[in-house]
Structures are given as structure tokens and as C-alpha cells.
Amino acid sequence: MTHASNTTMTDTPPRPSPKITPLSAPYWEAAAQGRLLLQKCASCGKVRHYPRMLCDACYSNSTDWVQASGRGKVHSWTICHHAFHPSFVAELPYTLVTVDLDEGVRALGRWRGTALSIGDAVLAQFDQRSEGPELFFTAATSTP
Fold first, then answer.
1. Which residues does 140 contact at the CB level (< 8 Å), separation at least 6?
2. Of 77, 133, 74, 136, nearest to 102 (Cα)?
3. What are the backbone angles phi and psi of residue 86, rounded to the nearest 5°?
4. What pLDDT does residue 11 have?
5. Phi and psi (nearest 5°) for 88?
6. CA trace torsion 102, 104, 19, 60 (10° rounding)
7. Which of 6, 29, 81, 117 has its CA 20 to 30 Å from the CA of residue 44?
8. What is the Cα–Cα distance from 74 to 58, expressed in whole angstroms?
9. How far, in Å, CA of 47 to CA of 65, rounded?
10. What's the gap between Cα 82 and its chain centre?
């Protein structure tokens, strides 16, 4: 089937790429290497994720970056049946999982696995895609 413009309906637009800013660049550079980095306040030590200009505990703008273990527990998830962007239609349905990382912050990523339960142990990984790294989670093994 085609549209009036002779473009086939199977033409899929490219996936959106992350907008890398000076604030988020350390996160994306590490992600491209398969590492999960988190911001840590250089003044009070509070870890935060997603990257932000100020610490929400002490309002300092001094920031360090720390390597995350990638381990965490399932906080929640949702199964997406409607694509937020046309490039994801072929992947429907897919599962997004919110994870309480061991470092005390939450992260959102794709789920790669079978059934989920609240509290399941998971491990963060990155899929290296042409558009940029994509965070996903899998079931963690019982031994680290």
C-alpha cells in the first residue's frame, strides 16, 4: 500500500538520537563504552540520575561522575502498545522498566527478558545502536 506521494507505508523513519549537551556528554560517552555513569554531588555526596545542573539536596553545582554497578531491582514497568515515535512501530509491544539502582536512584530502560515481578534483581546494559546507546535491563544472575 502506498500514500499519494508514492512513499510506501513500510518506510520507517530513523529512530531519534539523544540530544547530547555539555551536561549530559559524560553520561553518553560512557554509555557508548557500555558503562553506566551517574552524577554525584561533589559537595554533599548525593547521587542523582538523570544529569542535572544542581543537586536537589544542597543546591550545589559541583558535580562528580561515578561508575554505577548496573545492578538494581524492578520498581515498575509498562508494556507499550502504542509507539511514541513511528520508528518504534515494528517493535510493538515492548516493555519499559523502571529500576531502583543499588546506588539509590531510578533509571528507565527497555526490558529484555521474560516475565517481571516487582523487586526482581536486574542488570543494566547498553545496546550500541547507530542512533546512540540504548539502556536496557535483563534479569540478574544470583551471583554477581
1. 71, 121, 122, 123
2. 74
3. -55, -25
4. 79
5. -100, -5
6. -140
7. 29
8. 28
9. 9
10. 19
Q: Give the phi and the psi of residue 139 in degrees, each rounded to 5.
A: -65, 135
Instruction: Decide: 95 and 111 in contact? Cβ < 8 Å.
Output: yes
Q: How far apart are CA 123 and CA 42, in angstroms?
A: 26
Report the pLDDT value the prediction gives residue 9, as an integer from 0 to 100. Answer: 53
Quick check: 97 and 77 in contact, CB under 8 A? yes
Average pLDDT estimate for 106-130:
95
Query: End-to-end alpha-carbon separation of the chain, Å?
Result: 51
pLDDT attached to residue 10:
60
pLDDT tens for residues 23-69?
999 999 999 999 999 999 999 999 999 999 999 999 999 999 999 99
C-alpha cell at 126: 547498553
List the beta strands (DSSP E) in 7-93. 37-41, 47-48, 63-67, 71-80
**Taking CA 102 as the corner, what is the angle to CA 109 and CA 110, rounded to the nearest 5 degrees?**
10
Sign of the four-CA dihedral 53, 57, 58, 62: negative
For residues 2-24, average pLDDT: 73
Q: Which amino acid is at 94?
A: Y
pLDDT of 141 reads 78
